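Please decode residue identities from the backbone states below.
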């Protein structure tokens, strides 16, 4: 066991995934409240505007200090350090979300019990499933008229393709919501509405078959008891390994707004969610308790705090110990970095950070030295893999209204591109830049930010392309030489992206098929993993 093992073991790093309005903000706030990281409810609320991202985007900008400070939250609960990473709510920012999900070890899925599994949840889950991320399920809003719990369980199983193992089971719903039966502790936790209750103060009745429960809760209790019988017969036992492998998800019922069921979720995170594990790099697998520091940048946010106007690179520590003032090497560029003002994120405030361990997220202010996907080490040449970039599906060309501002436009776009807000392509022929996005809203955001952060009024215009594919060629198929032949023969439709990766741009999907037939040795990728 290394000296760092105890620190690694007490870390839990997770994200909440949900469809807008399911209760993510509310639950986040209650988790912070129950862990003691904040004292009063309401402080995360300011961030809420973000769920109306389309219309209120400018408004969000004003609140950015708050919204971003809460994009990573650290709290201590029991003996654990819990890092909660926020994921942007709007689906147009889903690329950003996918990258955030590469930095977590578990996900908490919040489901609105009235609506069941909704589209955004489904999409995010696919990403988690692809990575075998363990998922905990919280069924929220039991204080409303919602779907029957058996039907919900069934739907989640079908949609997720994983086995649901209920840890609690609701007694009634809406006006008749009586609380939850805890199948493992053999007790009922009685529901009292209201936001004032704090951890450990709810009423508990021991024994699931305690006759007092039938007397007090009547038909809803009888129904719940019957359902539990069914569930016990049908659902398999919870197996920790199956949960860690993403095959089983423990399910909890509650009502976040009423502080109900929140503590179970916190406990489950501590008891069930994994501590940081090994992470693959091209060169080797990196163990979290290794003595030497390493980490990977999974998110960059520019000009977060209007008072600082800096860019913060969010880095997940993969191994070792980060200490304030230490030297770090950016493996891609070989540059050395010695940031004095590395920040951590305790609830609402940025705080200066003294040390961090595997699983922790640190924020490094920098001016363009760090890019998405960068690996930082104490010197070793390591490159972590797996940070995804998706081929854009929407394209625009961009030029400046005032030609004297061309330089600012390029600088602004380079930064926004490095941040992952948009993908910027430089066509091999011609000088006009191309923007690529997965969601339409990304263009609006970029135009707004170019104007307000870089002082450039940009004209964003339709472009003829609709399909992009990154192109590579394996050594066995001719490698660089064959790739160059392809590039030379197709320069009219080739561009370089932010990291100079050659990209084929096409008008129609049919052209892609033709290209694949004509160039069998070239590989066309819809997904680029940073390497
Ligand atoms: P989001 O971040 O996933 O988008 O959801 P958010 O927490 O903002 O919650 C969406 C709405 O659902 C909010 O109501 C919130 O109060 C409500 N809500 C959250 N948990 C529960 C719950 O357990 N029961 C009930 N009944 N409602 C819940 P809102 O009217 O949009 O906002 P507000 O006026 O309450 O602030």
């Amino acid at each position: 066991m290394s000296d760092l093992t105890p620190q690694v073991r007490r870390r839990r790093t997770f994200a909440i995934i949900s469809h807008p309005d399911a209760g993510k903000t509310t639950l986040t706030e209650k988790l912070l409240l129950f862990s003691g990281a904040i004292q009063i409810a309401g402080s995360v609320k300011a961030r809420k505007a973000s769920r109306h991202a389309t219309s209120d985007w400018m408004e969000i900008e004003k609140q950015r200090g708050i919204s971003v400070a809460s994009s990573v939250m650290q709290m201590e609960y029991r003996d654990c350090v819990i890092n909660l990473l926020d994921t942007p709510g709007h689906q147009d920012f889903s690329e950003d979300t996918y990258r955030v999900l590469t930095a977590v070890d578990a996900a908490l899925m919040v489901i609105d019990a009235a609506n069941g599994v909704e589209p955004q949840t489904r999409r995010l889950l696919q990403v988690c499933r692809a990575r075998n991320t363990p998922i905990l399920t919280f069924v929220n809003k039991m204080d409303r008229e919602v779907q029957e719990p058996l039907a919900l369980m069934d739907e989640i199983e079908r949609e997720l393709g994983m086995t649901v193992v209920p840890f609690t089971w609701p007694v009634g719903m809406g006006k008749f919501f009586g609380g939850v039966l805890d199948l493992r502790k053999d007790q009922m936790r009685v529901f009292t509405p209201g936001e004032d209750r704090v951890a450990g103060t709810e009423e508990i009745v021991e024994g699931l078959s305690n006759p007092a429960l039938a007397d007090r809760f009547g038909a809803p209790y009888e129904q719940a008891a019957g359902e539990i019988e069914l569930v016990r017969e049908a659902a398999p036992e919870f197996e920790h390994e199956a949960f860690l492998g993403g095959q089983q998800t423990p399910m909890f019922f509650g009502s976040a707004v009423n502080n109900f069921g929140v503590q179970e979720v916190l406990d489950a995170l501590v008891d069930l969610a994994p501590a940081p594990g090994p992470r693959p790099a091209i060169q080797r697998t990196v163990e979290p308790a290794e003595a030497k520091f390493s980490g990977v940048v999974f998110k960059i946010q520019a000009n977060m705090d209007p008072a600082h106007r800096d860019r913060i690179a969010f880095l997940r520590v993969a191994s070792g110990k980060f200490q304030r003032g230490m030297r770090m090497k950016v493996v891609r560029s070989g540059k050395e970095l010695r940031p004095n003002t590395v920040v951590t994120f305790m609830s609402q405030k940025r705080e200066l950070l003294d040390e961090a361990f595997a699983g922790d997220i640190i924020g490094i202010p920098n001016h363009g030295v760090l890019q998405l996907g960068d690996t930082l080490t104490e010197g070793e040449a390591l490159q972590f893999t797996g940070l995804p970039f998706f081929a854009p599906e929407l394209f625009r060309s961009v030029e400046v209204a005032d030609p004297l501002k061309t330089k600012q436009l390029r600088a602004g776009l380079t930064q926004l591109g490095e941040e992952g807000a948009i993908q910027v392509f430089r066509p091999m022929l011609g000088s006009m830049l191309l923007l690529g996005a997965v969601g339409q809203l990304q263009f609006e955001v970029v135009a707004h930010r170019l104007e307000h952060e870089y002082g450039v009024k940009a004209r964003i215009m339709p472009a003829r392309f609709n399909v992009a594919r990154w192109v590579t060629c394996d050594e066995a198929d001719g490698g660089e030489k064959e790739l160059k032949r392809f590039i030379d023969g197709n320069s009219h439709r080739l561009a370089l992206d932010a990291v100079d990766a050659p990209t084929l741009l096409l008008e129609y999907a049919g052209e892609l098929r033709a290209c694949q037939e004509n160039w069998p040795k070239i590989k066309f990728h819809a997904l680029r993993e940073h390497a």
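Observation: Confidence is low (pLDDT under 50) at residues 46-69.
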